[in-house]
Amino acid sequence: MQTVTLDEAAIAHDLRVIHYFYLAGIVLLIYDNLLMLDLEVRFIWKSWRSRTSAWYLFIRYSSLCIRTMVLVSFDFGHFNLEVRVNTLHLEITHIFPKDVGLVLSISRNLTRSRNRCNKLNTVKGLLTVLQEGIVGCTLILRVLALYSFERRIVIILVAAVIIFISLAAAMPTGLSHTLNLPPSGCITPYSSAEQVREAGAWEAMLAGDVLLLGLTLYRVYTHEREIPTGRIWRVLIRDGTIIICLANLANILMFHFGDSLTFSSLTGFTVSLSVAVLCRLMLNLHLAAALNTGTTGLGTNSLRFAHTEEGADNGLDPT
């Protein structure tokens, strides 16, 4: 039986944790898509040429396609070729320390494998930023619509976006150090300084989500009389911003308390959850607009979720 060192076993375990969390995010997206398929066909596919429907379809299916494509590169069980080559390299170096040609040949193969992994990780990071940016822009547009695009709210949100992006880019890196971990799978270990920088970017996103939540809360309580008694918190939960804030908070905690491999294990799941919540928000707004026969003076926004539930209780047909 082949003996596996403790470091290799620990890394293999960390890889499984990362991949299983990522897989859980994809399962969540697919499951949510199946649950909401009826509403999607009713309100999105029947008017797919409208801008809101096209935006919804882009958010929903681009995220699902991106997550699935990245999943192909994952290894859920055994050590892959890179680990075996690296282990062989260590063993040959130990047994034949003077055979420079053989060692250099294996080192070149390992370097090419690492370069491919680094490129893949860079692409994964850019796609994650793209998806989170789409979610953030959509939530900002929803809050602006909630306030009927008031000039002061536009200025506040634009200034906040600039400040948060600047803070994320200017996060101190601290003292970096090189991690001497044997590579396993297509994953790159990060130093503590790099973890702090990435955590700072997610903290800036969380600050933006909290600002959007605060603006939503303010709008809700200033129009409290227009919402049925006892429905306010149900409206806010269904609005989704609270769920996105909690998911980002859990992801940030993992960045600070996870090790050099698992610190970003919740990132994929957080992005998938944010996309699922956002798509539900958009579908619920369509349903609320279809059920609402009156007007609250606020336009089509998250406050109309109360009318959705009220209409359903009265036996109204959502079509």
- Percent helix: over 70%
- Radius of gyration using CA atoms only: 24 Å
Structural class: mainly alpha
| Mean of all residue-level pLDDT scores | 72
Task: Describe this structure in a few short sentences.
The chain has helices at residues 6-35, 37-43, 51-71, 81-95, 100-146, 151-169, 192-222, 232-239, 241-257, 267-291, 305-313.
Report what the structure shows.
The protein has 319 residues and is mainly α. It has a domain at 25-73 and 130-174 and 190-313. The protein is 72% helix and 0% strand. It is built from 11 helices and no strands. It has helices at residues 6-35, 37-43, 51-71, 81-95, 100-146, 151-169, 192-222, 232-239, 241-257, 267-291, 305-313. Helix 1 (6-35) packs antiparallel against helix 3, helix 4 runs antiparallel to helix 5 and helix 6 (151-169) runs antiparallel to helix 7 (192-222). The chain crosses the membrane at residues 20-41, 53-74, 129-147, 154-175, 199-218, 239-257, 263-283. Residues 20-64 form the DUF6533 domain. This is DUF6533 domain-containing protein.
List the helices and strands and how they pair.
Blueprint: H1 6-35, H2 37-43, H3 51-71, H4 81-95, H5 100-146, H6 151-169, H7 192-222, H8 232-239, H9 241-257, H10 267-291, H11 305-313
Helix pairs in contact: 1-3, 1-10, 3-5, 3-10, 4-5, 5-7, 5-10, 6-7, 7-9, 9-10, 10-11
State the main characteristics.
319 residues; mainly alpha; 11 helices; disordered C terminus; transmembrane; transmembrane helix; membrane; DUF6533; DUF6533 domain-containing protein
